[in-house]
Amino acid sequence: SEKHKEGAWTSLFSCSFLSGAQSLGTCGRISMGGSYGGGYGCRIGGFGGGYGGGFGSIGGGVIGGGIGSFGGPVRGGPGFPGGIQPVQVDPTLLRPVHVDIDPQIQQVKCQEKEQIKTLNNQFASFIDKVRFLEQQNKVLSTKWELLQQQGPSGPRKNLDVIFENYIQNLRRRLESLLGQRGQLESELQNMRQYVEEYKTKYEEEINRRTAAENEFVVLKKDVDCAYMTKVELEAKVGALTDEINFLRYTGVGLAAHVDLEVRRQYEQIAQNSRAEAEAWYQSRYEELQNTAGRHGDSLRHTKIEIQELTRNVQRLRAEIENVKKQNHQLQAAIAEAEERGEMALKDARRKLEELECALSKDKEELARLLKEYQELLNIKIALDVEIAMYRKLLEGEENRLCVDNPSNVNVCEYLYTVFSAEWLLAWVS
């Protein structure tokens, strides 16, 4: 606003000429003490205040006066002889300036600074890594060149041969594993065939046992029939014996030798029949027991062999499962390693892109800051040149006032004041 410009101009004018005031009374020169300032009030042309000057040892008088008539209605009061005029401060300059600023700007700036620091640290670490890798690459290149430059007497290592040998070893191991797998599969097939054969034998033995049991049942039926026949014959023998006894006691008296002969023949027949039946029954029973024992032994041996084959089959299946698990684990490890490698490569590329973007942004920001710094430096140089020029002008004017006639002091001071006021007004506008 107009008042702020007036206050700023007054303060600048007062500070400039207060700092330049010097007491020259002791040397017989003009004592330029006082203040070019004071009350530059609400009017544009009101350059008030007082210029107080005093001569020291020359004349001893006091020239007080004011040049307040230049543009203002108030004239300056009497100056203090040989001293400094009191400084009047515009109260409008003491009022606080209300500037609406977003309170989050400082926080955002701090966050941006932290982000820039973080990016700079990451960029520095990335540069260190790149330098380290370049150094390692140079070291390895140097070693490779030295190994290539060595003569035939020195040790030479051909990496191709080493890798070929390693690949051949891996291939041989793979072929041996494949051969072992084929051998295990063939053994598994043989075991399966053995199991099938023993299953067939077991079924045949079960069928034989069933047939033997059926035959035993049939023989038991025959023995039961023979036993029943024996019982019937014994019953008949008893009946015949009773009948013979009855006839013996009731008959008309047969001859004794006839009875004895018949009885002897009958007993002989009965004894022979009983002996034959018992012998046949005993032989059949022993034969069935022997057959059952043989079949039981064969069945036990078959069960033992089946259990042994079952254990072998389970062991082979467990080994095959272990080999399959190892194969799956190796395949999973290879897939995981490939996936990790791809993810690491993608992450490295992404970080490289981010670093490149951050580097480009930092370069643009640095270029902008350099441009602003160059502009500010040019402005500073121009201001320094103007300040030096006006300082030379003021020093020349002061020297001229010192060497000129004291009668011309008022005119020079008036011109000096007018020139300074016009320059300050032009600078403020």
UniProtKB/TrEMBL annotation:
Keywords: Coiled coil, Intermediate filament, Signal. One of its GO terms (cellular component) is extracellular space. PROSITE patterns: IF_ROD_2 (PS51842). GO terms for biological process: intermediate filament organization; keratinization. Residues 167-215, 299-379 form a coiled coil. GO terms for molecular function: structural constituent of skin epidermis. Residues 112-401 form the IF rod domain. InterPro entries: IF_rod_dom (IPR039008), Keratin_2_head (IPR032444), Keratin_II (IPR003054). SUPFAM superfamilies: Intermediate filament protein, coiled coil region. Residues 1-23 form the signal peptide. Belongs to the intermediate filament family. This is IF rod domain-containing protein. It comes from Strix occidentalis caurina.
